Amino acid sequence: MNRVQNHAILTAYDTSASPIRIIVVKDIVMKNGWLELFSPPIFSKSGSQMVLILSQEQGNGDSYRHVVLLQLEENAKDDPVTKGLFVVSELLAWNHEDNLIYYLANTDNDSSVQHLYSISPVKRKPHCITCSLKSKHHADVPCAYNRADFSKDASHYVMTCAGPDVPQVSIYNKNEKLKIHWTDNQELVDYLDKTDAVRIRKMTFDVAGGFKANVMLRLPPNLDESGSTKYPMVVNVYGGPDTFQVVDRFVLDWGSYLASNKSIIYATIDGRGSGLKGDKMLFSGYRKLGTVEIEDQINVTRLIQNTLSYVDSSRTAIWGWSYGGYAAGMALATDSQKVFKCGISVAPVTDWALYDSIYTERFMGLPTLEDNLKGYEAAQLLKKYEGLRDKEYYLIHGTYDDNVHYQQSMMWSKVLEVNDILFRQQSYPDEDHSLGLVRPHLYHSLENFLDECFIEKM
What we know:
There is one protein chain. The chain is built from 9 helices and 22 strands. Strand 11 (145-150) and strand 12 (156-163) form a beta hairpin. By secondary structure, the chain is α+β, with helices and mostly antiparallel strands. The radius of gyration is 24 Å and the shape is globular. Helix 4 (292-307) packs across helix 5 (323-334). The model has no long low-confidence stretch (mean pLDDT 97). It has a domain at 196-454: Rossmann fold, CATH 3.40.50.
């Protein structure tokens, strides 16, 4: 693969020949995006074929990641095993005895689910193993988001029903016969059944380019939907390329706490650049980080405020960590509509030229005059300082961060200070990117900041 990761050559080696023969199986070029080999290839029993995940154009003119069969020969042609307007997320196993390939994918109609499928490379008729599976805890709740791990010979698999109900892990044989419920987290289920559960609402909104953004809201248990009571809202953003948050996984985190204990609506938005919906939406932010994904966070939040009468548009915050910290800062700084009252950046990237090259160059190309220097400069949070004037902003970073280096926040705070822009800052000595040893202090500090942001000033 080349440095900017849009060109790869797949080769095989015939070790029976003397000298060893090199076979160029496939030369792959992505013209309008980057290239990732998402799962390691799996080989046929004879070793003459392999399957892997590659983007394949579908009837609607968009491309989606699918299981593709390749012969181990010169310039092999793609032979798609799966097809449709869905994304294959992981290739799991090839049962050679039954000639079945197993994989995880969402569906044509719902990108928030993930099901386990099997398919014969001969008959090409996919069989969904988990589509009719129900939660062990509540018979009316489907296993909508699943993971699986197979034995070496693919005769058994460990299946995790990861949501939306409390996760449960079971072991099945290849005939889909349950062998054992390994763990069901019943103690957690019993506890949650005695509490007022956070309500989940999913929505979609149109965004530029003809795409749709998925939204998930975690709502207070006793939400008054009449509009007579206004609830503050926190938007949790990540926004990095090929990531997603709006899926049917079970989650119990700070957002659950805010919704259940503080009566705060907690929102996540998958806009342009997110995964699971095809290459056109995925690559819409290619070589221009800090643009379309930020626009969608702002505009979709405004649409939520205008659509739901119980959302308090004067008390809406945005926060994120890592890429999400960058996105939160960019959204607050470029928000000319006053959608957000305040924002929080935890461990943000502020200059992409100083971040991990293998990550950044995949999405941005090279920071050179000949390539995409202007794109790097436009993506700098460092240059958006004026947009934070007279806004409430909280910057947090660990000094021992080995992922997004502390330098990023120091440069950012210097720019803000030199330009007399007031903000709140917290540095955690000797803490890495996870801030693992100071989580109580971190979340109490975040809560304190939100309390101050949401207080209704006279």
